[in-house]
TrEMBL record:
InterPro entries: NAD(P)-bd_dom_sf, Polysac_CapD-like, Polysaccharide_Synthase-Rel. Pfam families: Polysacc_synt_2. It comes from Blastococcus saxobsidens (strain DD2). It comes from the Bacteria. Keywords: Membrane, Transmembrane, Transmembrane helix. The chain crosses the membrane at residues 28-49, 61-87, 122-141. Belongs to the polysaccharide synthase family. This is Polysaccharide biosynthesis protein CapD-like. The lineage of its organism: Bacteria, Bacillati, Actinomycetota, Actinomycetes, Geodermatophilales.
Length: 686
């Protein structure tokens, strides 16, 4: 590093301005003088070699005439090429290429000058130019080598951060080079390990490959290693866990490179090497997406994202922004989350502080922006919370989705994507059942209108607000206990960026009416996840941090599903995206169900909402309230009722057992029953 000195640091007998001029002119004087000496030496050696040491007197005379011309050419070309304008202690391949190009050009000019008259043999002109170029390169890079050695010694003396690199590929070599170049980081690579036996004993950027991973326990002790850097982002999870365990046992920090997609975006930088995270241990393979196809769907289009301040919505906005949309509209009812999402986006992003439950204001927002693509991510999602507030689940997840569907249909949005959840499959919770209705609303409208609207269903995402990962992290930081509801519980997991990549991929593949399911891999044991996270924090499960079984909460399942057999999961052109054939209700049944749910929610009849949401077996229909229109879009040609003619929207199904359990306690259901308006699908009174 260069020193920074003020005027008071200079000798009082020498003017500061003179010191500055000398500092600036030193390379301009010393380096050309150095090149003059090197070229002269090269000419003399070449001449001696040409005549086997017995140089005739006329050849010496010719050389004396040629030297001034050669020096003028060599130094002049180097100056024109910018060879004298570099800090050689930080020289790289760029500077080496510059020296070679300048030296080659100078050599050709020297040969051309020597053609007529012939000062020295042409071979002397040619060889001396090449030798002088080699001398100059060695001289310049000697400065860099000395500087590097000093920085390395200083780094070891200052911090002693001795690093063992795992991975002898190109990535490992680049990391070592950056550690060596940036001595101020205090990282000193001392050894490399790789399971490829062909690399053993070789030098990687000057650091020797000492064997395979089996040597790790021994080398951690013998080399006094303080940090391990895993230089291969695609290392299998089992291997990462083994390395993490050895590092933990030895009190060594394990750091890793970011995932493949992140590396592609930012390039390999030393500052991107990060601590190990729990998602590095969940066995997810890097996702490949058709970026060209996704960009063609979004570039130059008007894109609107509901729930844009949430975990999924904000990541959708970030990834969409990279595809250069004409306009990106962030719609959310939470000003803080909306503000935070905007902070990560270009200034062209447009905020809309709107609640999807407010149909009038939502319609105005859609009319203002007239989006080409809508990602509907707004939803209430926390299962236990919604068990205590079922009416709120309906108003946002059902009525709010209906409002989005109606607003999108009103401005003829060509493409709409619903973000759904595995909890919508055979739902046992209010949240899951409300999202199942949301799926029906979007996909039924797509079926009737022919628009390219679809739904995308996936499991848990890592790190979303209020999810298990941040909860466990908070409990571990507090010293425990870590609470697991049931030792048998499993969940599917995916990182937020990965989920959003696949959502965009599914949207690009949609032709309308599809329900896509993301391939989530194998379910993860929640208690095993707790063990891993505790170990990752450097503590021991059960000893340093207690794991407590708290019992399942209302609405929770032990194991989630991503589809039911009737939906017939089929592959698509992307291996991580499956297509389902959704089992949809009739327009009449769906509209009836939405209407009943809204009336129950408006009445704050939580028990009635829960019963109406979680109905499963035989179906019933409730007569409609007059003049209430559910925002469903056009009915299909075979619909049994025309809303315009009837003056009302058809109402939908209640399934038997949940309905039977609740009909005596809900005023709305009891009133419908007493009036004879409530009938089963076969026409019998309920």
């Amino acid at each position: 590093m260069g020193s920074v000195r003020g005027p008071h640091d200079a000798s009082p007998s020498v003017p500061v301005s003179l010191l500055g001029r000398l500092a600036r002119t030193r390379p301009a004087l010393v380096l050309p003088l150095q090149d003059t000496v090197l070229l002269t030496a090269a000419l003399v050696l070449s001449l001696l070699f040409r005549y086997d040491g017995a140089v005739p007197s006329d050849a010496w005379a010719g050389l004396l005439s040629f030297v001034p011309l050669a020096i003028a050419v060599f130094v002049g070309v180097n100056a024109a090429a910018g060879v004298y304008g570099h800090l050689w202690r930080y020289a790289s391949v760029v500077e080496a290429r510059r020296v070679l190009v300048a030296g080659g050009a100078a050599t050709l000019i020297m040969v051309a000058i020597d053609l007529v008259p012939r000062f020295v043999p042409l071979t002397v002109a040619l060889v001396s130019g090449l030798v002088a170029t080699m001398f100059v390169g060695l001289a310049r890079f000697q400065t860099r080598l000395v500087s590097f050695r000093r920085r390395s010694e200083q780094a070891e003396a200052d911090t002693g951060m001795r690093v063992l690199v795992i991975g002898a590929g190109r990535t490992g070599a680049e990391l070592i080079r950056q550690m060596q170049t940036h001595g101020h980081t205090g990282l000193l690579p001392v050894a490399v390990l790789d399971n490829d036996a062909r690399t053993w004993g070789r030098l990687l950027s000057g650091v020797r490959v000492l064997g395979g991973l089996s040597e790790l326990p021994r080398l951690l002790a013998e080399l006094d290693v303080h940090q391990i850097v895993l230089a291969d982002p695609e290392t299998p999870t089992a291997v990462v866990e083994r390395i993490a365990g050895l590092a933990d046992d030895s009190g060594v920090v394990l750091r890793v490179l970011p995932g493949g997609d992140e590396l592609v975006r930012s390039g390999l930088r030393l500052q991107d090497v990060r601590d190990l995270r729990i998602d590095d241990l969940l066995g997810r393979e890097p996702v490949g997406t058709d970026l060209v196809r996704i960009a063609s769907m979004l570039q130059g289009r008007r894109v609107l994202v509901t729930g844009a301040g949430g975990s999924i919505g904000s990541e959708i906005c970030r990834q969409v922004a990279r595809c250069a949309p004409e306009r990106l509209v962030l719609l959310d009812h939470d000003e803080t989350h909306l503000h935070d999402a905007l902070a990560t986006l270009p200034p062209t992003a447009v905020p809309e502080l709107v609640d999807i439950r407010d149909a009038e204001r939502l319609n105005r927002a859609f009319a203002r922006h007239r989006p080409d693509v809508v990602f509907h991510a707004a939803a209430h999602k926390h299962v236990p919370m919604l068990e205590t507030a079922p009416s709120e689940a309906v108003m946002t997840n059902v009525v709010g989705t209906g409002n989005v569907v109606a607003a999108a249909a009103a401005v003829d949005v060509p493409s709409l994507v619903l973000i759904s959840t595995d909890k919508a499959v055979r739902p046992s919770s209010v949240m899951g059942a409300s999202k199942s209705v949301a799926e029906d609303l979007v996909l039924t409208s797509a079926r009737n209108s022919g628009r390219a609207w679809c739904g995308v269903r996936f499991g848990n995402v890592l790190g979303s607000r209020g999810s298990v990962i941040p909860t466990f992290s908070r409990q571990i930081q507090a010293g425990g206990p870590v609470t697991v509801t049931d030792a048998r519980m499993t969940r599917y997991f995916m990182t937020i960026p990965e989920a959003v990549q696949l959502v965009l991929q599914a949207a690009a593949m949609s032709r309308g009416g599809e329900l896509f399911m993301l391939e989530m891999g194998q379910p993860v044991s929640i208690i095993d996840l707790a063990h891993r996270m505790i170990r990752l924090s450097g503590r021991r499960p059960g000893t340093d941090v207690e794991i407590r079984i708290s019992g399942t909460r209302p609405g929770e399942k032990l194991h989630e599903e991503l589809s039911i057999p009737e939906e017939g999961a089929r592959p698509t052109e992307h291996p991580s995206v499956l297509r389902l054939d959704p089992v949809l209700p009739s327009d009449r049944a769906l509209a009836a169900r939405v209407d009943l749910l809204r009336r129950l929610a408006d009445a704050e009849d939580g028990a009635g909402v829960r019963a109406a949401l979680l109905e499963r077996n035989e179906a019933a229909e409730v007569a409609p309230q007059p003049n209430f229109v559910v925002p469903m879009g056009p009915l299909s040609p075979d619909s049994p009722v025309e809303p315009a003619a009837a003056g009302m929207a058809p109402l939908g199904p209640l399934h038997g057992q949940a309905f039977d359990d609740h009909r005596g306690t809900s005023p709305l259901i009891t009133a419908a029953q007493s009036a004879g308006e409530l009938t089963t699908m076969n026409g019998n009174r309920a």
